[in-house]
Amino acid sequence: MPMFNLIKKDLIIQKIQLLIFLPFILFFIFFGDHLPAFLLFFIVGMFIPMNGYTYDESAETNILLNSLPYTRKEIIAAKYMGAVVYMVVAMGVACILFSLFNKSYTITDIALGAGLFLLFGALTFPLFYILKRGYISTVVVISFIVFVFISGPIIQLLEIDLQGIINFFTSISTATLYLSGAVITIGLYLISWLVSQFIYQRKAF
């Protein structure tokens, strides 16, 4: 129950921002035709988790949380588990809207979007416990924008200039490729979780 309340917190404090969640998805459906579907799933999946982290930074929520009967391990666990929960919900809503407006996508797009989410989260979530307040959101937002816009060109570059690597991956069965990718991204996410927990345990509020 304590963990559920911590996860639910992000949804409650974002009730105003959630009003723009559906328009946010619809914007990318109608104006994001130049972006591959997996990037759209990634962007949508990051909406609630990133808003939650940004709000915690601006409102100094961690000071309040540490005055409540929650352990620091529970606080970090709720952030990482909650991010995945909200990613799944957001991508589910996106699938419904994509289908309603005939935006094509595949299971592979969802898997790639989720993988990018875990990778980006693994790299950026610890920054909220490392960087000084006031700098975090700027760094993460800029990183997010850069990450989105360079992902497509990088993939195209790999397709054109690194055909040998592509041939190697295409020689591997799809199931093995997906499983390997899932293990690596989940592993990095769990390592990031442990790193954030280590930092948070020693952080003064």
Protein model, in words:
The protein is mainly alpha-helical and 205 residues long. Helices cover 80% and strands 0% of the residues. It is globular and about 50 Å long.
Main beta sheet strand tally, sense and closure: none
Give the oligomer, counting copies of the same chain as homo and different chains as hetero. Answer: single chain
Span from first to last CA? 25 Å
- Spatial shape: globular
Comma- or semicolon-separated keywords:
single chain; 205 residues; mainly alpha
In short:
With 205 residues, the chain is mainly alpha-helical. 80% of the residues lie in helices and 0% in strands. α6 packs parallel to α10 (174-201).
Q: What topology emerges from the helices and strands here?
A:
Layout: H1 2-13, H2 21-31, H3 37-59, H4 61-65, H5 72-100, H6 107-124, H7 127-130, H8 136-161, H9 163-171, H10 174-201
Helix pairs in contact: 1-5, 3-5, 3-6, 3-8, 5-6, 5-10, 6-10, 8-9
